[in-house]
């Protein structure tokens, strides 16, 4: 996308992430609910296809790999595994609405991590927008008809690990002076190797319900398609965070849940109560307030730069 101006590249990256993120939720939910495909095995397929996609991109000259030490990428690979596994378990155990809204808690957690660990400061008005977002998530989760302790435990772990992962993605790109493709090129195979070792302890490998079980051709095609979409999601996440920030990426991500909720109601008959609707509205108001304040902040910064001699 080098031929596009900077704003055009950002818009294109956001649109790719929007479309791919919505598709991956429905594809994964379909594979879990309708086909019973094992969770960790599907994650392994995603990692493997992501690495294969990056290998092809590198062979075609899309980027040049940069030499990195395994120890530099290890924390990112571990958090990447946890991020995908726990969010997939959350999707498997919760309705799509609760799964998607629980992810909104990533933004407040990222703000806390960046404040405590990296000394980053946020204006009070930005912090206050996190209140309605958090309240909306709790309202939706509490009144969800499929509320269960295990599902919420997976959702909570997913939020914690995802927050760490997204903070580290941005920090590592700047620390190691690498772009999104260069970093993911090393991290994807490392994460695949970790899962390859873990899977036999938790899921069958052969036979019914195993990754090498008697799946139909249509099931195999769906799994491979899910892997291709996951590659697009992973790459766009790295690219967007590297060019914006983890908080901005998450605020953009919250808008996806509107379409995802609608799809969950239509495709999987997930019920939606009035109280859950209030929770969604509350979350949306917080997101809109954050977006307004961030745009005002950017305009103010541009004005200050223009006034300098």
From TrEMBL:
Pfam family for this entry, one: TPT
What InterPro entries does UniProt report for this protein, alphabetically? Sugar_P_trans_dom (IPR004853), TPT_transporter (IPR050186)
Q: Where in the cell is it found?
A: Membrane
Main location, first listed in the record: membrane
Give the signal peptide as a residue range, or say none if absent: none
Instruction: Tell me which domain of life the UniProt entry assigns to the organism this sequence originates from.
Output: Eukaryota
Quick one: a GO cellular component term? membrane
Indicate the transmembrane segments per the record: 12-32, 44-61, 73-91, 97-117, 149-171, 183-202, 214-241
Q: How does it sit in the membrane?
A: Multi-pass membrane protein
Domain Sugar phosphate transporter: start-end pairs: 19-290
Q: Does the keyword Membrane apply?
A: yes
What are the protein's UniProt keywords? Answer: Membrane, Transmembrane, Transmembrane helix
- The identity of this protein, by name, is Solute carrier family 35 member E3
State the species of origin: Strigops habroptila (Kakapo)
Q: What is the lineage of its organism?
A: Eukaryota, Metazoa, Chordata, Craniata, Vertebrata
- The primary gene name is SLC35E3
């Amino acid at each position: 996308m080098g031929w596009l101006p900077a704003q055009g590249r950002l818009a294109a990256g956001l649109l790719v992430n929007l479309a791919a993120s919505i598709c991956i939720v429905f594809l994964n939910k379909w594979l879990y609910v309708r086909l019973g495909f094992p969770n960790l095995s599907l994650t392994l397929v995603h990692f493997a296809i992501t690495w294969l996609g990056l290998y092809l991109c590198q062979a075609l000259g899309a980027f040049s790999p940069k030499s990195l030490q395994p120890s530099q990428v290890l924390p990112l690979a571990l958090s990447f595994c946890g991020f995908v596994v726990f969010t997939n378990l959350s999707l498997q155990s919760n309705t799509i609405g609760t799964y998607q809204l629980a992810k909104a808690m990533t933004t407040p957690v990222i703000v806390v991590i960046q404040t405590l660990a990296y000394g980053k400061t946020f204006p009070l008005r930005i912090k206050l927008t996190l209140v309605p977002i958090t309240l909306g998530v709790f309202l939706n989760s509490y009144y969800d008809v499929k509320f269960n302790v295990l599902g919420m435990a997976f959702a909570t772990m997913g939020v914690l690990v995802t927050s760490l992962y997204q903070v580290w993605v941005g920090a590592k790109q700047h620390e190691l002076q690498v772009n999104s493709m260069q970093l993911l090129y090393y991290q994807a195979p490392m994460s695949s190797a970790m899962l390859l070792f873990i899977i036999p302890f938790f899921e069958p490998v052969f036979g019914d319900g195993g990754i090498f079980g008697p799946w139909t051709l249509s099931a195999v095609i769906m799994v491979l398609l899910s892997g291709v979409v996951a590659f697009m999601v992973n790459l766009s996440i790295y690219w967007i965070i590297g060019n914006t920030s983890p908080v901005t990426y998450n605020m953009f991500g919250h808008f996806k849940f509107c379409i995802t909720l609608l799809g969950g109601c239509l495709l999987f008959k997930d019920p939606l109560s009035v109280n859950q609707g209030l929770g969604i509205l509350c979350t949306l108001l917080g997101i809109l307030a954050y977006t307004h304040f961030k745009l005002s902040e950017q305009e103010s910064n541009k004005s200050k730069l223009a006034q300098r001699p």
